[in-house]
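User: Fold both of these, please.

Assistant: Here is the first one.
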Amino acid sequence: MLAFLNCEHINKLLDKLDLINHSFDKCINLDKVKKAIFYVKKYHGNQKRDTGEPYYMHPLEVALMVADYSFKTDTIITAILHDTIEDTTLTKEKIAIEFNDNIAEQVLALTRNRGGKKTSSMKMIQTLVN
């Protein structure tokens, strides 16, 4: 059932979030994070990066970086879903239904500008944690 979680990048992220929960007495909702991981894998599907690795690995790496600065479930989920509106068929409306309006708005805010410029990882982290 949870076979989609069998991946080194996913395990690394979930282990880090679990450690944060235990070490800092935080309450990052791992079930909601797992749901976001399911969605990012589902919607990015077989997309590949220029390196040939699955595209969904990039959002997981971003979420790992964001977790260094924010212990909020919504922020971690936004990092995981940040490319879905621009690169997949997942919509803001579907994100709002499946997660919440706040996450949907944050994902939309991080969507590539109409000029095609990507947001840098550091700018994204600053946007998410402020």
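And the second sequence with its predicted structure:
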Amino acid sequence: MYRFVVSWFAYSLVLLSGTALPGCEEYAPPPESPTETVGEISCRFDAATAGTLRGQVIWQGAIPDVPRYRAPISPGSEHAGQPYRLWPNPHAPHIDPVSRGVAGAVVFLRGIDPRRARPWDHPPVRIELRDYQIHVCQGDHDGSSGFVRRGDAIAIVSRQDLFHSLRVRGAAFFTRAFPDANQLCSRRLDRCGLVELSSGCGYFWMRGWLFVDEHPYYTHSDAQGHFTLPQVPPGRYQLVCWLPDWHEAARELDAETALICRLTFRPPVEIVQPVQLMPCQTQTVSIQLDASRFGDKREGP
């Protein structure tokens, strides 16, 4: 059963206006002590012995039919009379019906010694708020998730001529208001971990994710579910496949309109497989996903 929580949306906007200042220097908890200095990271990487992990993320069973949300642009009373639109569930899985491959899954390694890792080679991350969605742009990638080296800055910008607010939680904690379009700002991320991005002004379907780490062994599966992690030092690791859950854990309603103003989803799903990579080895793995891993089966879908 969903847990419904009624919140006063107008009051939250007042709080937002007082805490989300025009600059990018809002309060954040002090950064954790670094585990490695910049000079130490990758100092022991040996390209001559590095190997490759590759594979495919495959969906087993029926492909889930995830309904969209029907709502006006904003739950506030000033928008309640506007036409309703259909908004996609941001965590609906993208599954190729022919290959059964899962696109956009995040695949990464745990247990890597940053000193033995290859140098960081992911492009900088830019967060764009456009078309009432959060776009995580990184090189040629435009999706819902990206990878940030601990201590690097991300760029954030709104591309719409309306009020946006980016709410950041998890390994980073701040809210940034964007009253105007095309006003670029930056924010440094100093903590390793998972960062959730969402709207702070009622666009409840907007979501994005950032993975902050000291090593670069992160990738996305392609349209057929294939992935590759190159230049991995030999050793024993955990291969992790991460995908957000599309099932709701809670929803908050506007007190005046009874429309959804915020959603909380169930925790993301991780599939963990132990791997041992020998020097210069290319190893192929298969990762299986199915609907039973998502949602709370005690309560139903």
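Residues 9-19 form the longest helix (11 residues).
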